[in-house]
Amino acid sequence: MTDRPRPNTMPARPRFNWPDFFRRAGWLGSVGIVGIPVVTVVAVLAPWITPFDPQLRVAEAYLPPSAGHWFGTDEIGRDLFSRTILGVYYTWLPALAVIGFSLALGSLVGLISGLMGDKVDLVLDRIIDLFIVLPGTIIALAVVASLGPGLVNTMIALAIFWWPWYARIARDEIRRLIVRPHVEAARIAGVHGSRLLLRYLLPGVVPALLIGVSLDVANVIMTMSLMSFLGLGLPAPAPELGAMTSRTLESLTVHWWLPILPAAIIFLLCLLANLAGDGIRAALRGA
């Protein structure tokens, strides 16, 4: 008598359910989540998709918004819509770069602190606390002022004071998870090192970090725009959104589109990032 083949009793690995994720995120959150990659693609392609050369005169100066020039023209006849698209390139991508670097460094420090414990955790935790209590934005302004205006200097100054927040999240989540019963059972069973981290700890840390990152994009954009507004970004005639608003404030009552429309794009980018952050938080916490 031949034995019947035994059915595979191993549970299938659950597949990520995108429709359910967007349902939990809500329609506003879904708009933000979908909009993030769309804006990123636009920012990456900005130098090649502008309808006019952002640095050249293409029409008369101070033309109001029209079908030919959607955002009008500036004081020397450059197309403001083209300059605004390029401004997204100089604002959105650097903000993502700051977030990415801060996330990588902060997560590494937080994971080391949480996993090592004892004296290592004590020392790293005090370092994290020291950076968190410092007035980061003010010191970042001082760093850029001392290094000199420029986009790279702005990014360096912000990254220096942004990583501790992710380190705090990663460290606290590791310390919370490491005493959970399933992690204790795994350690008793001989699971240690990278296997313990990858299989039992990181799945609980990543959602918290993802929520923090999604809610931080707007803060980084606003801080970078503020520094650009104060003249600490790229020098003229680079089309940074904050600088474009600052340079044309005196035209607010006469040529309103010059300061208002770049500022409106900053507002829309921050709104989109906040909607995405709220949606991701709702979706992950409802999972």
Automatic annotation (TrEMBL):
<dbReference type="GO" id="GO:0015031">
    <property type="term" value="P:protein transport"/>
</dbReference>
<feature type="transmembrane region" description="Helical">
    <location>
        <begin position="205"/>
        <end position="234"/>
    </location>
</feature>
<keyword id="KW-0653">Protein transport</keyword>
<feature type="domain" description="ABC transmembrane type-1">
    <location>
        <begin position="88"/>
        <end position="277"/>
    </location>
</feature>
<keyword id="KW-0812">Transmembrane</keyword>
<dbReference type="InterPro" id="IPR035906">
    <property type="entry name" value="MetI-like_sf"/>
</dbReference>
<feature type="transmembrane region" description="Helical">
    <location>
        <begin position="21"/>
        <end position="49"/>
    </location>
</feature>
<dbReference type="InterPro" id="IPR000515">
    <property type="entry name" value="MetI-like"/>
</dbReference>
<feature type="transmembrane region" description="Helical">
    <location>
        <begin position="89"/>
        <end position="115"/>
    </location>
</feature>
<comment type="similarity">
    <text>Belongs to the binding-protein-dependent transport system permease family.</text>
</comment>
<feature type="transmembrane region" description="Helical">
    <location>
        <begin position="151"/>
        <end position="167"/>
    </location>
</feature>
<keyword id="KW-1133">Transmembrane helix</keyword>
<protein>
    <submittedName>
        <fullName>ABC transporter permease</fullName>
    </submittedName>
</protein>
<dbReference type="InterPro" id="IPR050366">
    <property type="entry name" value="BP-dependent_transpt_permease"/>
</dbReference>
<dbReference type="GO" id="GO:0015833">
    <property type="term" value="P:peptide transport"/>
</dbReference>
<dbReference type="Pfam" id="PF00528">
    <property type="entry name" value="BPD_transp_1"/>
</dbReference>
<keyword id="KW-0813">Transport</keyword>
<dbReference type="GO" id="GO:0005886">
    <property type="term" value="C:plasma membrane"/>
</dbReference>
<keyword id="KW-0472">Membrane</keyword>
<dbReference type="GO" id="GO:0055085">
    <property type="term" value="P:transmembrane transport"/>
</dbReference>
<keyword id="KW-1003">Cell membrane</keyword>
<feature type="transmembrane region" description="Helical">
    <location>
        <begin position="254"/>
        <end position="275"/>
    </location>
</feature>
<feature type="transmembrane region" description="Helical">
    <location>
        <begin position="127"/>
        <end position="145"/>
    </location>
</feature>
<keyword id="KW-0571">Peptide transport</keyword>
